[in-house]
Design goal:
The complex is a heterodimer of chains A (130) and B (637). In chain A, helix 1 runs antiparallel to helix 3 and helix 2 runs antiparallel to helix 3. The N and C termini of chain A lie far apart (35 Å). Chain A contains four helices and four strands; from the N terminus they run αββαααββ. In chain A, strands 1-2 form a two-stranded antiparallel sheet. Chain A has a two-stranded antiparallel sheet with strand order 3-4. Chain A is elongated and about 55 Å long. Chain B is globular. The longest helix of chain B has 22 residues. Chain B has three domains: 343 residues, TIM Barrel, CATH 3.20.20; 62 residues, no CATH class; 187 residues, no CATH class. Chain B is α+β, with helices and mostly antiparallel strands. Classes of the chains: A mainly alpha (130), B alpha+beta (637). At the A-B interface, helix 2 and helix 3 of A face helix 5 and helix 6 of B.
């Protein structure tokens, strides 16, 4: 596994699975994926309705937080990939695999806080789309 | 100076004439036979004037399915299924009042009546808009988007799918409004039993940013405007009153309304700001207009107590009852946004400010009678029992399709209160007239019956007499009334009598601990305050067993006291109201901890969501209470 692939896999795993706190009318603790989903939904509202009201404010806040977290997660993945660059390829793949498996395991638990969900204020990964 | 006095006098006369016109119970306006139970000395009735059903966007987006008709049936004692619901549409919880209410008003948010209907009805244009898709797919998110557009930011901008001028949504709003009206009509008991009174009503949900300016608008009877005036139509209270004047009083023969502000504790001091529509100090006519339209205030409800807060314009330690730690909605979600509480977020300060404004202008804009209600968003009027409290939704804990772990509501919220009314009979005419003359009181839940009279000729032995009410009316005025001081008059006396909640099948309510009288007056231009003991022992001796929630210690089934103000100065403007305190009893959260088997000595017993059970910053017990409307004493000049 190349350094570039390591960075890409780690970034994808973090963005899809790592719970992050962000504010969107209520404080959610969910992956960047959900933040992006909510930003896209609100972006569509803004396109239809204009920037007036809370839709525009929330879309803007989510967009800004999305940019920030994208940078942070990319940076974290980059640093981790660099740190693993000197390791043997099999070890590198093993570490990445364990990290991803750990995140997937966590994602099966209802550890995400999703007060904007229509079903429950706490969710596992599948519940992120409610 | 002369001109100012003259304007004030004119405004006072105009306000008096308006109040007299609207308060006069001259003829029975409602159809129906006379009530079998009638007393010219008036009877106590209990009800809830703040109830949301599925017609409110913030209720429906949380899973509430209760209709206005369901809510009235619940108020009359029928059981009701409440959220969450299973896949087959069966409720996973149910509720029922131990005792029916005497009256209720469903007060759904008028904003978004039409928008929600369009989003729910595929036949209506706009149903396929992005906003409506979000409403159906992510209702919680839609709540913030839709509510924020028309009320939270104080704007009047409707969604584009409402069409030019919002016509599509205004037209669609007729459906829900007709449903509200029809439900109230169906619930009204016009038989001689007069068992239940319903009012056509709604909530106007205006805000200044995230600072609450909400009002409930209660109509006297079925003669109401074709559409409610919402914050989307009129974002300011001044606009609301003007629009209601046009649409109701001038637009529909016989139509009459009053507005009840609520949650001043979430207004960051704006609810009772003594300024007119342009931000300048209130003129006499503006003060009179405000007083005529808003004779009452909701002093307590689900989202906390608004009477007063110790350390915020008062040192009264008994003010620390069901306090919210913020006075702006945003402070709930963003603790960093919280700022020092403002005195004018609280009713006691507003009552005092009213006296001060009256000193300047001759007209008191804040002559407010006190009521309480629930603000339930489950459509469960009067559901105020602390034990087994299912939450009220709304700004509290949403349910979704499964119960959240732990507490059923945000820990700082509570089950809310009730409105008490002294009226000759349980009819719309009689109750509305009582609301107008402010012969009302609020309770934090228990059905405490409280009489409060003031007068210069009240006898000292009134509590020992069987004809307390007869003498009180004959020689004084009841709560909500005004006394005019004479230059050489003796001090007025105040008689207050309270009876514990007799309870229902589950037994009587708590014993009473004390009655206090709160006096506010203006001295040298400043508002002063004094709290005196009118009945009961000076030191409290009762408490509650934290392990079992069992009450301990002595108390009273009834209390009565006559207090004559030793510091009365006939030249000073003053008001007096009574506060009745029960012995301590377990708070809803303490009952929830107890029923969940939480033992703070055993960490394993503290289940998820029950961590606050062992946080001593949250009280385990409360002193339930009642607040009477004030009696005002006009200075002799």
């Amino acid at each position: 596994m190349s350094t570039r692939a390591t960075r890409g896999v780690l970034f994808a795993a973090l963005a899809l699975l790592l719970p992050l706190p962000f504010f969107a009318a209520a404080v959610e603790v969910a992956p960047l994926l959900r933040l992006g989903l909510l930003a896209a939904v609100l972006g569509a509202v803004v396109i239809e309705d204009g920037t007036g009201g809370t839709g525009g404010v929330l879309a803007g806040a989510l967009f800004a937080q999305g940019l920030l977290y994208t940078g942070l997660l990319w940076g974290a993945a980059h640093l981790a990939a660099r740190a693993l660059a000197r390791a043997a390829p099999r070890l590198r793949a093993g570490v990445v695999g364990v990290a991803v498996a750990l995140l997937i395991g966590l994602a099966c638990l209802p550890l995400y806080r999703t007060p904007l969900s229509s079903r429950s204020a706490t969710s596992n990964w599948l519940g992120l789309f409610d | 100076m002369r001109r100012g006095v003259s304007r004030a006098a004119r405004a006072a006369l105009a306000a008096g004439a308006l109040l007299a016109a609207v308060a006069a119970p001259a003829a029975r306006a409602e159809a129906g036979v006379p009530c079998a139970r009638r007393d010219p000395l008036r009877l106590p009735f209990f009800g809830d004037l703040h109830v949301h059903t599925a017609l409110s966007l913030d209720a429906s987006t949380q899973g509430t399915r209760t209709t206005p008709r369901d809510a009235y049936r619940f108020a009359r004692g029928e059981p009701l299924g409440v959220a969450p619901w299973d896949a087959e549409g069966r409720p996973l919880r149910s509720a029922r009042l131990a005792r029916p209410l005497d009256f209720a008003a469903v007060t759904d948010h008028a904003e978004l009546f039409g928008e929600a209907r369009i989003c729910n009805d595929p036949a209506l244009a706009g149903h396929d808009s992005v906003v409506c898709r979000v409403y159906r797919r992510w209702p919680r998110l839609a709540f913030f988007v839709m509510n924020g557009r028309v009320s939270a930011l104080g704007g009047s901008e409707r969604h584009r799918f409402c069409g030019p001028g919002g016509e599509r949504c205004l037209e669609a709003a007729r459906g829900p409004w007709d449903e509200v009206r029809a439900a109230a009509e169906a619930a009204q008991d016009r038989a001689p039993a007069c068992a239940f009174t319903s009012f056509v009503a709604y909530e106007w949900t205006g805000s200044a940013g995230t600072r609450n300016l909400h009002r409930n608008v209660i109509f006297r009877d079925a003669r109401v405007p074709e559409l409610p005036v919402s914050a989307a139509d009129e974002p300011s209270p001044w606009g609301l009153w003007a629009a209601l004047e046009a649409a109701c009083r001038r637009g529909v023969p016989g139509c009459e309304f009053l507005a009840i502000p609520h949650n001043s504790n979430l207004s960051a001091g704006l609810m009772f700001e003594p300024v007119g529509p342009g931000g300048a100090p209130l003129t006499p006519s503006e003060a009179a207009l405000r007083a005529a339209n808003e004779p009452l205030v909701e002093v307590m409800q689900h989202k906390g107590d608004s009477e007063c807060r110790s350390g915020v314009g008062t040192e009264d330690e008994r003010c620390d009852f069901e306090p919210l730690p913020y006075d702006d909605f945003l402070g709930r979600y963003l603790p960093l946004h919280r700022s020092p509480l403002q005195p004018l977020s609280f009713v006691r300060s507003a009552l005092g400010e009213g006296l001060a404004v009256a000193e300047r202008t001759g007209v008191n804009p804040f002559e407010l009678g006190l009521v309480a209600s629930t603000d339930t968003h489950l459509g469960t009027p009067g559901l105020v029992a602390e034990r087994g409290y299912p939450g009220h939704g709304g700004a509290g804990t949403p349910v979704g399709d499964r119960l959240p772990a732990g507490f059923t509501d945000a820990i700082e919220f509570n089950p809310g209160g009730l409105a008490g009314v002294w009226a000759e009979e349980n009819s719309r005419d009689a109750l509305f007239a009582a609301l107008r003359r402010r012969e009302v009181w609020g309770t934090s839940g228990p059905r405490l019956a409280v009489r409060f009279f003031g007068g210069f000729g009240l006898p000292e032995d009134l509590c020992e007499r069987a004809d307390l009410a007869e003498v009180g009316y004959a020689r004084g005025v009841p709560m909500g009334g005004r006394l005019a001081a004479q230059p050489a008059a003796a001090a007025p006396a105040f008689a207050v009598q309270a009876l514990r909640d007799p309870g229902g099948a589950d037994g009587p309510g708590s014993l009473l601990e004390r009655i206090e009288i709160v006096k506010l007056w203006v001295e040298d231009g400043a508002v002063r305050e004094r709290v005196v003991l009118a009945a009961g022992p000076p030191e409290a001796a009762a408490d509650v067993d934290p392990a079992t929630c069992a009450p301990r210690g002595p108390g009273f089934a009834a209390l009565c006291g006559v207090w004559r103000d030793p510091d009365f100065d006939p030249a000073e403007r003053a008001l007096y109201y009574a506060r009745v305190l029960e012995n301590p009893s377990c708070r809803w959260s303490a009952w929830a901890c107890l029923d969940a088997g939480v033992d703070c000595r055993d960490p394993a017993s503290v289940g998820s969501g029950f961590e606050a059970c062992c946080d001593e910053s949250w009280p385990r017990s409360v002193q339930e209470r009642a607040w009477t409307s004030p009696i005002w004493v006009e200075p002799a000049r």
